[in-house]
Batch of 2 targets.
Target 1
Amino acid sequence: MIRYCLRHLSYLALLILAVTALTFFLLRLAPGDFLSELSLNPQIPRELVETLRHQYGLDKPWYVQYWRWLSQSLRGEFGYSLLYHRPVFALIWERAGNTLLLALPTFAVGLATAIVLSLISAWRRRRWPDRVISFLATAGLSLPTLVVSLVLLYVAARTGWFPIGDIHSSGFDELTLLGKLRDGLWHIMLPMMALGLRVCAMFLRYLRASLFDVLSEPFVVTAYAKGLTTAQVLLKHALPNAINPVLSVSGLVLANLLSGSFIVEIVMSWPGLGRLTLDAFMSRDVYLVMAGLITSSGLLLIGNALADLALAWHDPRIRLQVNART
Amino acid sequence: MRPRSRSTVPFSILFFSILIFILAGCSNKPSAADKVPIFAKLAKDACVVDCGAGRYGGRLVYAAPAEPKSFNRLLVKDQGSFDIAERIHAGLIQLNHSTQKLEPGLAKSWQFSQDHRILDLALREEVRFSDGHPFTADDVVFTFTVLLDPKLNLPLRTAFVRDKELLRVEKTGTYAVRLIYPKPTVTAEFDLKDVALLPRHKLEAAYQSGQMESAWTGGAAPEEIVGLGPFKVKDYIPGQRLTLARNVHYWKVDRAGARLPYLDSLVIIFIPDRNARLLRFESGEVDIHDDLRPEDFSTLQRADRQRDLVLYDIGPAISSEFFWFNQNPELNPKSKQPYLAPHKFKWFSDVRFRRAISHALDRGTMSQVGFLGKASPAYGPFNASNKVWSDPTIARYEYNPGQALALLQEAGFKLNAGSSLVDRQGHPVAFSMITNADNTLRQKMGSLLQQDLAKVGISVRLAPLEFGAVIQAITGGDYEACLFGFRNDNPDPSAQQGVWLSNNSMHAWYPNQKTPATAWERRLDQLMTEQMFAFDFKERKRLVDDAQKIIAENIPIIYLVSKDILVGAKRKIGNFKPSILDHRTLWNCEELYWQAGS
């Protein structure tokens, strides 16, 4: 078990190393740097720009900069944002909460909706409710998050039913507790729909297939033979057994969720990690970009680990296997 | 088969996420709006503002494209931080945006010595910072110590250094300061408007320990950020909004003696996307929008919502859109090749060619079609909006393709059978023009320019590049022509000094010249240097006018149009005086108020 973990961790370390090196290289390849915009201001002398460039180490080749960053990061110093003059993780920390605030409820609601819909599918197997749900799942999976976000935003702008972006209203501080809750829910609806459609569709596809598999197992026949109703069979016997494959793909869904949330955050101006990282990219704030990348990879890792744990906890076979091996 | 509780897993996840959501929502403390503002004791030398009497109370919401990077005005290098820092800080001298003239700020009066090297300033007495700490000459001395510190590399420092010699600052009394300039400086007063005064009691420790840059970042506690501006930081939620509250120690009163500011708070929300900013303004959530595009303006004009919105076209900005030809004759040190093909250099450096190009451009249509009429033709570096410095008598190049062709023929060009222009050696006249791809208006202008020049047989290839790539091309000298525009909010000629001096790196068409390449550039250098030492305004104006005439005659930079500044605001905002200078709408935020019935 420990060896397995170590191997996975070393893969991850290699991956992060490769991703960060590549990003450093690509950032360097693109024309201009953090100080380009400043150098265009007629009131700022060129010498000052050069001094700053030297001070920030931007005059060195990319591999020197990368090596410098890497050796400092290994000592736990991830550097300061060039733009904000603050430690990068202080900035990340402020935003990561907002990303989780969007991602976790989306994950939960997506999963819950998928469970309900898949049960309906299984209950009315191969009949029109199942067909409709199955079609919706395929549609949800094939629609890019960007398109969904834009369409939802358009609807919101035309109807005024939902706010256009942001996490709270500007007058949020003056609302009562209930008002705040309503304001928050009202604001999260749209990004959650944009992001959740895909999550729900993915879960739904796996869950439906898995439920269909389970329903053809002998123990289901036995259950029916014992005189249980369809509802009882589905809820008590089929669903708990069908959920295993879903838990094991939830890591994948999480990856999808995080990459999707980058798009949704930017389109719907949700102040999370995605927007921060994009801004950092646009202004070539190298260290902040790196921190953003590491955090996303970290979130992904934690998500996958949680999915594995949930699976082990839910399925005694895996739990026993793991225990036997260690 | 399984215990009942297992099937409730998804629901407990849901429950917890909702809980997280509620908790996150509660972390922001609610605040009661103070109906009757309680001000601290008024300064002895309060400044009386000539504005209409307003009503106290209310909250104004403004949408900014970018977040503040620092709350220290002296450290600021970007527009977003600047706009906010200006609301919470104040300087010795202020610029009135309506008149474009300087006015007393925290210095109630000042006096130059005979030789213009010494400036004595008398400070307003018994003024207090936003935390109630008294403001004295010590704070001014501290501010300049920070500003002039070579280790900090502050952008404003250069204004106070001449030939490596620094400005000296002396305290001559509790409320009196003397500035001793290394050389007489004509822009001394103008430079002071940007020097926001820092509280020594709050920042000295940070300065001594070398922590200046990290002292007033977005992570700082609001009560640590102290200034002399009309508002102070109350709450900052990164990525979302900044709430500024009234500074109860503010030192300005209206004509009736009522303390300013009128507004309880100023909320700045951050929306990077232009379209989202417009939508939120349209929906009424945002009260002011001061960067409308021409198409937004006409959409809003048509919309029903116009009843409670007022739209202002406050005239052309002081900066213009322009393009220039690369006239660098040197070899590229990397490739050992000339920056430009020799025949192209010959065209671009011929003043008749440049004048012909200028005559061939239909600036009127450019304004009408490219900007929906919300722009006006520009012919020089100081347009009519620059109230103090513009010279209406400079050479104008009216649209006249016939005259353009005549000039081109005079310069040895001729139209061939395919009606495209060729030079003496038979090279067809064609060049590429770079511009930044993110500016759609500029690209539209580029294609109009392409059409105009096609009429005189010149073929232009537009090359929209990413912003960074444009800068790389300009600084590397690797381009033929460039369509661009600076956002300049400083009407004083000194702000453009870098562009006109031939030895400067910003001298766009041929930077870093060792000796002036042409006679007129030599003359321009002379005039622009002399005007920096002309202490008589009339004399300085004459020198600047001469410089403008030289620029217009030789047109190294071909000015096209100046965009109108388009602003929208709620009708109920009182004392609203939008200006073409930055900040366009919040420059007088202490005077703004909500009229009755809003």
Note: The radius of gyration of chain A is 24 Å.
Target 2
Amino acid sequence: MSKAARSVAVTVTPLTRQTGSGEFLQRPASIEHEIANAVALPAGQLRARASAKPGDEESMSSECIVHLIRQDLRDGSRRLADELTPLLLERCEASLHGSVRGFTSAAARDIREDVLDRLALSLLGPGDEADFLEVRFGLALKRLRIDACRRQRRRDQRQILLDDYCAGEGDPDSTIPAIDRLQSDRARQEDRLMIKQALASLAAPERDVLVLHRLAGIPLRSKVKAHPDLVSLLKCSERTLRNRLRRAERRLQMLQESPE
Amino acid sequence: MSAPSPGSSLQDAFQELVARSDSLDAAALEATISRYPQFTAELTEFAVEWVLQDQLPDDGKTSEGVELSKGDSATPSVLARFRQHLDARDANSGGGPAPLNPFTPLSPTGMRRVAAAVGIDKTLLAKLRDRRIVATTLPSSLNRDLASALQVPGAVLDAHLAAPACVPAGLSFKSANRPEVGSKETFADAVQRSSLDDEDKAGLLALD
């Protein structure tokens, strides 16, 4: 049976979370429709759809699964929540497994656990923090993933002893090959390890300039006033930014030459 | 775009940033920082991590057909904690979380503010909070103003008012006896019994 084959007049609990501009979050019409149909399905069929691989015609969207779990908990039950939550978490972990980059296997597992914990707890919360999961689940998972990576990297950095910190002058262009290697799909395992060490050993201000300028391509100072640049974003002078960039690239260069 | 609501969290700021574009964009970062200046450092750090996650080479792992070994999967431990939370919730409340009550977050000051915004007294507002007024007798304009003052969609307020009357949890009572759930009354009766002056009563009763 196709997703649209059955349509049942069901009022779906409205979302109460407000966006930054003060409007209430709204589920896309397709999700509302899917939810209205899903609540009329027998338990076996519901489970089968939730278990189907995302992308299959019969599969249920994560937004719909989230709604069914939250509604079940609101109704004082937990039968559906007990059945559907493992399916949702497994689906998310498979997605996270391929998208957490630049960490050891153990750290990547910690990140996945962190994301899934936050996701599960938000489903349990009586408030409306999980409303966004019913609107654009993929985007909400992306936010949780990047935030978990951010916190893990901060933990990694605390563990690295910043010893021979070099603040000498140098030609910044001399380290551009290292940046190219960072972006290369063919980067070898040792390259990745070196990059990880380099990023972890950089102080946050240097790392921020390096990544945002060299990788994201944001100019230090834009020639066009209306275009954002790092001077305005990071509230620093161009000279300070150049110094930070030079120190970061020098550090990267040193690690390239003596990776131990 | 207007300023974010005062209760906006760091997660709201992150969510707004990722929703602005598929990959990090300088203009999106600048716009988000200007709306959430209190989170400038965190947003910058988040942006840096976003770039790294997009640009670092993958480790040859893809989500296609992934089957994590039991030891490598985080799902079982997360699920165990999730079920512990559910068990604790069930043990404490004997059921699920209460249905959405738009009055729950209101402090006494908040109650006064909402009452003033819709032009009723606190007693009348408390009756609406405790669902002691028949929902169908409420003027639609008052219903609309109340939903706006409570900052909830009208459907949430309708669902709340239509539920059976209740004794609010978390409030203190001076009486030695446990308060009882009373029967529902019409809006007109509730207005007549309120402390409002005659002019205000007449104004409320004249609402559509």
Note: Confidence is low (pLDDT under 50) at residues 1-8, 160-178 of chain A.
